[in-house]
């Protein structure tokens, strides 16, 4: 396993980010490690320093979208994850992380995570042919 690889000891994709907002238990600007735990079908969010706090988990099917936003006037970027909370599936909340120098292989990490998000079913295409008229007479 390479020293600066994109996977953890179990073979899961992992990447470091700077936490910005969205989790009440975490302090702003904390260093976090996001891990794609495929066996459990979830994303693990754990503090890298102050590991006495338990990690938070977000199941892949809770994730609505993932976006990369470039900060205006800087070279920094933010990772935005929109999700449905487990206790209120109709609501949408956002987790915000900053991509920092320690975020090695972040493009590969985000690409793999996007591929695991369930896509909403496409609406059925209506048949363009008119239905034949049915006569009530035989």
Automatic annotation (TrEMBL):
Q: Residue ranges of region Disordered?
A: 117-138
The name this protein carries in UniProt is Uncharacterized protein
**Species of origin:** Desulfitobacterium chlororespirans DSM 11544
């Amino acid at each position: 396993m390479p020293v600066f690889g994109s996977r953890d000891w179990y073979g899961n994709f992992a990447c470091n980010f700077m936490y910005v907002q969205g989790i009440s238990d975490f302090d702003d600007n904390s260093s976090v490690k996001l891990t794609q735990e495929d066996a459990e079908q979830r994303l693990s969010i754990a503090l890298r320093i102050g590991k006495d706090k338990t990690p938070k988990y977000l199941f892949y099917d809770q994730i609505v979208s993932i976006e990369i936003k470039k900060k205006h006037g800087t070279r920094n970027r933010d990772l935005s994850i929109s999700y449905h909370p487990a206790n209120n599936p109709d609501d949408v909340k956002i987790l915000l992380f900053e991509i920092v120098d320690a975020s090695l292989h972040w493009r590969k990490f985000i690409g793999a995570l996007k591929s695991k998000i369930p896509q909403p079913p496409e609406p059925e295409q209506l048949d363009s042919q008119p239905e034949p008229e049915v006569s009530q007479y035989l």
